[in-house]
Design goal:
The protein is about 60% helix and about 10% strand. With about 350 residues, the protein is mainly alpha-helical. The chain folds into 2 domains: about 10-210, Cation efflux protein transmembrane domain (Alpha-lytic protease prodomain-like), CATH 1.20.1510.10; about 215-345, Alpha-Beta Plaits (2-Layer Sandwich). The strands form 2 sheets. A 3-stranded mixed beta sheet has the order 1-2-3. Helix 8 links the parallel strand 2 and strand 3 (about 285-290). Helix 1 (about 10-35) packs antiparallel against helix 2 (about 40-65), helix 3 (about 80-110) runs parallel beside helix 5 and helix 5 (about 150-175) runs antiparallel to helix 6 (about 180-210). The protein is elongated and about 90 Å long. The two termini are about 45 Å apart.
């Protein structure tokens, strides 16, 4: 779990720890605002802050667990715990939405006056400003380091900001119109909004646990491989990749000239592994299966000289996501479009 193995770990821990401490402080401020006003809308905002604090604590634990090295019981590492964290956070958000509905419905049917409304508005406005800065930093760091936990926590904090803005607008309406039923109505709208957010987080976590395809990651890998392409690397197929925490898992088949020795084939595979591992900052687990070439590959093969060649090199295939992820080995189109080919080098 040391920082040399994972250079992002320290930043992740600092960010989540800050989120936990700041969230606890803002939660106290919002409950103070609720104590002063008795507003159902402010209560809905304060309840979501409880989820922020609990989720940040869970995220902190998941980051520590995810950073552990693989062991005999977990040979693929512990990175998937981050999806559990995101799913847990989503479930808590859904629970908070249900509590908000329970508290807000009576306020909508039986409106009550809201005392000390100005003080309550000032308190939650200040909390919203702090949350806005915190959420933007968490999302930016999460996207830069590909951490689903930081991104999920940041988005939840930003959702809290949107919630607070909605609460403020509703209570300003109460202040100027005297329509106290708006308090309950705003709380219900807040509950609906965070219900959608929680459902989305649970869905994303489930997709990650089921290794849903990541088009952005596949496109990134294809670009790196295509840029470093060597004539001896005839073609690639069955490319698969997924993320788990900060680690990336990649496997594919690489077609090499059939007359290469086992040692030479291993050297080519190793070189490609090094390229990908360097690109992903030593945070990649790579498995490459070497396939021998067959006669149909001759027109796209750039390896020379070759005593087994049955046809001259005409056009080499462009390496893109759709061509590198195809299932079957040795698939070469009979009449490929020009955009699927590049001139032989």
């Amino acid at each position: 779990m040391n920082s040399p193995k994972n250079p992002n770990l320290r930043n992740h821990l600092l960010a989540i720890s800050a989120s936990l401490l700041i969230g606890a402080g803002l939660m106290a401020i919002k409950f103070l605002a609720y104590y002063l006003t008795g507003s159902a809308a402010i209560l809905s905002d304060a309840l979501e802050s409880i989820i922020n604090v609990v989720a940040a604590g869970f995220a902190l634990g998941s980051i520590i667990i995810a950073a552990k090295s693989p062991d005999p019981d977990h040979p693929y590492g512990h990175g998937k715990v981050e999806y559990f964290s995101a799913g847990f956070e989503g479930a808590l958000i859904i629970l908070a939405a249900l509590v908000i509905f329970y508290e807000a419905w009576p306020r909508l049917l039986h409106p009550q006056a809201i005392p000390r409304l100005e003080k309550g508005l000032l308190l939650i406005l200040g909390a919203a400003l702090v949350n806005l800065i915190l959420g933007m930093v968490l999302v930016m760091l999460g996207r830069r380091t590909k951490s689903i936990v930081l991104t999920a926590d940041g988005k939840h904090v930003l959702t809290d900001v949107y919630t607070t803005v909605g609460v403020v607008l509703g209570l300003v309406g109460v202040y100027f119109t005297g329509w106290n039923w708006l308090d309950g109505a705003v709380a219900i709208l807040v509950g609906l909004n965070i219900l959608v957010t929680g459902t989305r987080l649970v869905w994303q976590a489930a997709a990650g646990l089921m290794d849903k395809s990541d088009p952005e990651l596949l496109e990134e890998i294809c670009r790196v491989i295509a840029e470093q392409r060597r004539p001896m690397w005839i073609d690639i197929h069955q490319l698969r990749a997924r993320r788990a925490g900060t680690r990336v898992f990649i496997d594919f088949h690489l077609i090499l000239p059939r007359d290469l020795s086992l040692e030479a084939s291993h050297a080519e595979v190793k070189q490609l592994e090094i390229i990908l591992n360097d690109y992903f900052q030593r945070q990649a687990d790579i498995l490459i299966h070497a396939d021998p070439c067959m006669d149909p590959e001759c027109p796209i093969c750039g390896h020379e000289p070759c005593e087994h060649r049955r046809a001259g090199t005409s056009m080499q295939r462009l390496w893109r996501t759709d061509t590198l992820t195809c299932e079957g080995p040795h698939k070469t189109p009979d009449h490929p479009d020009e955009e699927d080919k590049e001139p032989a080098k």
